[in-house]
Design a protein that fits this description.
Blueprint (H helix, E strand, L loop, with lengths): L1 E5 L2 E5 L3 E2 L5 E2 L2 E6 L4 E5 L6 H8 L3 E7 L8 H7 L4 E4 L3 H4 L7 E2 L12 E6 L6 E6 L4 E3 L14 H10 L10 H6 L3 H13 L4 E3 L10 H8 L6
Parallel strand pairs: 6-7, 7-8, 8-9, 12-13
Antiparallel strand pairs: 1-2, 2-5, 3-4, 5-6, 10-11, 11-12
The structure holds fe (ii) ion (FE2).
The site of fe (ii) ion has 7 residues, from loops.
Length: 229
């Protein structure tokens, strides 16, 4: 359930959650163990006894990351389960979830407490501004919703048509069309992609799509090809 994906990095698959317009999405959490021994929990999945025990066996959760304004559903449960954990949320989360106890908003530069091991780039977007992360020890780049490649059979009926046209489903990771249109400042988006491509990434993780163990840079470059001037 909590599986190693790279050095000091684990992936936990959660259950499905309902999104907009009846689309049901799979969920995935990434657990990173920092050199200090503390854990970063990226986009927590539903808290169950099994997941909690698996995570606790790896270390003490220190930071919870809500990487965009759509990925915050289970944060409060994890915060309650691990008192003292700090919640760091992307811009837009606090407006949607005033009930959450957010320690800090994620910015364009990493918190000094994780900067040695985890870098980040802020990608402003009208649909949902996203913070893309890079875990250096495992050379893993971590996208939330800006890149997706769910299985073509995941959605049926009209949702299947929309998912295909939007590029939520397909053989390779792609930027869904609604997010492409959501980049109001294309120069800023290009700059963000340039920073992401500067990372020596090998592995690629997405919230909704097949993880890649190699070829991350080429996959990202391919997915953002439409953004080239
Ligand atoms: Fe998502």
């Amino acid at each position: 359930m909590t599986d190693p994906f790279g050095p000091e990095l684990w992936v936990t698959e959660g259950g499905d959650v309902a999104g907009m317009a009846g689309f049901v999405f799979p969920t995935r959490m990434v657990v990173i163990r920092l050199a200090s021994g503390g854990l970063m929990l990226w986009s927590p999945v539903a808290l169950t006894d099994q997941v909690r025990e698996a995570v606790a066996a790896l270390g003490t959760p220190r930071f919870i990351l809500a990487p965009n304004a759509l990925h915050h559903l289970h944060v409060a449960d994890w915060q309650a389960a691990f008192p003292g954990v700090e919640v760091h949320a992307a811009p837009g989360v606090s407006a949607r979830r005033p009930d959450l106890d957010i320690s800090a908003e994620l910015e364009a530069t990493p918190d000094p407490r994780w900067a040695q091991e985890v870098d980040q780039v802020l990608m402003e977007n009208r649909i949902a501004t996203e913070v893309v992360f890079f875990h250096r020890p495992s050379a893993t780049v971590i996208f939330t919703d800006l890149l997706q490649n769910m299985a073509p059979g995941r959605f049926t009926g009209w949702r299947g048509v929309v998912a295909r046209l939007d590029r939520m489903v397909g053989p390779k990771p792609a930027v869904p069309r609604k997010f492409r249109m959501g980049f109001r400042d294309r120069a800023a988006a290009r700059d963000g992609v340039r920073q992401i491509l500067d990372w020596p990434a090998q592995r690629l993780l997405l919230a909704h799509g097949t993880p890649l163990r190699e070829g991350a840079q080429a996959a990202v470059e391919n997915a953002f090809g439409w953004l080239r001037p």
